[in-house]
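Exam revision sheet. Question 4 asks you to relate a sequence to its structure. Input first:
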Amino acid sequence: MKFLIDECLSPELAKLARERGFPESSHVRWLGLAGAGDHSVTRRAVDDGFVLVTHNTTDFRGLYGREDLHVGLVAFNTAPGMMSLDIQRRLFLLALSELGGEEAWNQVLEISVNAERTVTIERFDLPA
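Answer key, structure tokens:
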């Protein structure tokens, strides 16, 4: 399994993935995709077998819903102003735990944190 971290999240997550045994993980900036549209990021992730990790849930859920086959999408949702590097790291570690080292073929793992810091985890097929 390898992760592609979207530019809305820190490159530190890609480093963390590598430290945790996923050496092919990367960040969109490292692949020359900084500023690229969501369609381009989706295409690269799907074509190259990356599990995409993003904070841009709505746009990527729509794009992944059009894909016949993908190895997974991890989406973080937080209350406004909450997405610090510490929260990103915690959510990513939680995602790694939830995935258990298994690619989530045609699945989305959504982890949400509300203003009261209550965490909810949803996993669903996409496309349905």
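Marking note for examiners. The beta strands are 3-5, 26-27, 51-54, 73-78, 107-113, 119-125.
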